[in-house]
Every structure is written in structure tokens, then in C-alpha cells.
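Working notes for the structural subgroup meeting. M.R. asked for a predicted model of this chain before we commit to crystallization trials. I am recording the input and output together here so anyone reviewing the notebook later can reproduce the run.

Input as submitted:
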Amino acid sequence: MKLLARLHPPLAGLVAGIALAALATVAQAQTKWDLPAAYPASNFHTENLNQFAADVDKATGGKLKITVHPNGSLFKLTEIKRAVVGYGRAEKPQVQQMIKLLLGLEAVPTPHDAADALAVAVCHLHHGTGAIAERTRAERVPTAARSWRAYRP
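Returned structure, recorded in C-alpha cell form:
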């Protein structure tokens, strides 16, 4: 996490915020959490995630275990795009715009990696069956605002 903070401070803050929010809700009910990573196991991004998982394990005294799934083994890129845009071969601007619409943001998240991280989170929610996923399904944006075809740059 320290390396990520040094290389990309805004992204490190976003990852830490998402992780802490998830940990706050997950730690009470579960002891295992799956963390998808698009990069190979030897990439420094994945190594940072592994270090983060080890830090969480140490900080919680082993009560919370995070399993990092490198190389897109948990969710494939086309699956993430399909969950966000509805089309597995969507372009990056379409994914970014849909993240903006789905989450009710004023602007597309910056840096661009932030939209990618949020897209993975949305994909995870689409596949989830917990309370957060159920609440998200109930609060979805109306259909007209969710189509990437409505995007106008």
C-alpha cells in the first residue's frame, strides 16, 4: 500500500477508502473476502494488493482473510464491462460514463484507474447476494439513464 501511495496518491486513497468501507461491513459477518486483480501475480499492483491483504490479516489478528485473485481470475474484463455497460466489448469512455451514471457522480472519476476500480466493485455487487447487493438492486438508476447509448461526449 505504501508503494501505491508513493506512485499514485489519489488512487491509494480511493483503494484504502473502498477497502475500509468494505472491511467495516464485511468484518462483522464474514472472515473471508475475495479481491480481484486484473494484473499478473508478478506485477507491482498485485504485489501491493498482496501486501495489503497481509497487513489486514495482521491488523485483524487473522479474523479477516483477503484472497487476492490475480490475472483477472475472479472476473474477466468482458464480464466487468458487461456488468457495468451491458456489453462486454465496451470502450473505456463508455465504462467511465456508465460508472458516472450508475453512481450518480457529477463527473467521470479521475484518475482513469478510479473508474476501473469502481467498475470492478459494481461487477462484484452484480454477482453478490448480500445485503449491500440487494439494497443496490433496489436503488438502481432508471433504465433510460443506464444505457451507454445515451452517452454524449
